[in-house]
Amino acid sequence: MHELSLAQNILETVRQNVTADELSKVREVVVEIGAFSGVVAESLKFSFEAITSGTELNEAVMTIVDIPFCLKCNDCGSETSTEIPMMLCSICGGINTQILSGDELRVKELKLAEE
After folding, report:
1. What DSSP string runs through 28-89?
2. What is the pTM of this model?
3. Rg value, the chain, Cα
4. Is the dihedral of CA 97, 76, 65, 15 positive or negative?
5. CA dist 10 to 39, 45, 76, Å?
6. Pair 63, 30: CB distance under 8 Å
7. Hey, is 99 helix, strand or coil?
8. pLDDT in tens, 49-83
9. Strand pairing category for 79-82 and 97-101
């Protein structure tokens, strides 16, 4: 389960971006996960909850923002979004394509408790 190591990396990112005094104030960690990233969102959330339980981050929840798979065809110029990530252009069938979105995994936002 590589989601556990991803959750540990996310936890490290939180610790790098929040002072030690503010760690207990973190209430939400917003994470963007692309459809083509290979990450199982529910497993990542479960892993995050498991490793933050009993720590200064035990009140933090992870919110997942799903990023759709979008592709640009370098032959016909079309930009398409599909449910099933395929590297073929759905307009012309070309293989000269590039991913615009859907392969990301990033911490988008940290929300702290108001004082």
Report:
1. EEEEEEETTS---HHHHHHHHHHHHTTSTTTT-EEEEEEE-EEEEETTT--EEEESS--SS-
2. 0.86
3. 18
4. positive
5. 13, 11, 38
6. yes
7. strand
8. 999 999 999 999 999 999 999 999 999 999 999 87
9. unpaired
> Quick one: pLDDT at residue 84?
77
Residue ranges per structural domain of the chain: 2-67+102-112
Q: Are strands 61-67 and 26-34 parallel, antiparallel or unpaired?
A: parallel
Residue 26 CB burial class (10 angstroms; 0-12, 13-18, ≥19): buried
Phi, psi of 40 (to 5 degrees): -90, 110
Output the CATH code of domain 2-67+102-112: 3.30.2320.50
pLDDT beyond 70 at 91: yes
Dump pLDDT digits (tens) for 20-29: 999 999 999 9
